[in-house]
Amino acid sequence: MNWDFDFITNGQMVYFLQGAKWTLIISLASVVLGVIFGSLLTLLKRSKIKIFKFVSSAYVEIVRGTPLLLQIFIVYFGLSNVLNINELLAVIIALSLNSSAYVSELIRAGIEAVDKGQMEAARSLGMTEAMAMRKIVIPQAIKNILPAIGNEFVAIIKESSMASTLGVAELMYAANVVSTKSFNKTETLIMSAVFYFVMTFSLGRLIKYIERRMKVSDTN
């Protein structure tokens, strides 16, 4: 087998660089919105109002029980005629809604990992439950879930490849464009794999560094 990577030197690498840029933009936007929506889901799930708990729990189960690609299609074909959204926005919305279901579970687990005695101690000092959550529980829960949120970011980077099915010019779409121009399908896929690895590996190292820094700050 003779591999041909001439596209690296003939100016077509710009497609991969642009694709990687859009992959990171899509992933970052989706994670940020996923954390916001996930936090709201957690509040609803912890609510004393049963209908809120039911709706949030049902949403999480439905999202986690259906394929992401199906969710992207539902958002795009379901909302494009109503709200006139483009493919990029549809992908970001779908990834955000998908991520929020997983992030809400991470936040819930982070809150539950905080010793319940701290809430009781805060209440005994005259704090309301909301104040104790805001000042005592949530800051500790954030420390617990930050590494997991980072891992969710890594997962979203890989899952964003499904945006190519709608023609969004992210990394996989770029690989398809270059393979069409160069007729080197395997080589362009290998190059896109290198880009994904560099992004996810670098982010993984950053997450490990943050974890170590957090452990050091906890011991001081």
How is the topology of this model organized?
Layout (H helix, E strand, L loop, with lengths): L12 H33 L4 H15 L3 H16 L3 H27 L2 H9 L4 H31 L11 H12 L2 H35 L1
Describe the structure.
This protein has helices at 13-45, 50-64, 68-83, 87-113, 116-124, 129-159, 171-182, 185-219. Helix 3 crosses helix 4 (87-113). Helix content is 81%, strand content 0%. It is flat and about 70 Å long. It has 8 helices and no strands. It is mainly α. The mean pLDDT is 87. The chain crosses the membrane at residues 20-44, 189-207. Residues 20-207 form the ABC transmembrane type-1 domain.
CATH architecture call: Orthogonal Bundle
| Beta-strand residue percentage | under 5%
Tell me how many strands there are: 0
Q: Provide the helix percentage.
A: over 70%
For the record, the CATH class is Mainly Alpha
Shape: flat
- Please, how many domains? 1
Rg calculated over all Cα atoms:
21 Å
Q: Report mean pLDDT, rounded to a whole number.
A: 87
Helix count, per DSSP? 8
Uncertain spans: none
- Class by SSE composition: mainly alpha
The CATH H-level superfamily is MetI-like
Order of helices and strands: HHHHHHHH
- In the CATH hierarchy, the third-tier topology is known as MetI-like fold
Protein name: Amino acid ABC transporter permease
Keywords: Amino-acid transport, Cell membrane, Membrane, Transmembrane, Transmembrane helix, Transport
Family: Belongs to the binding-protein-dependent transport system permease family. HisMQ subfamily.
Pfam family, one: BPD_transp_1
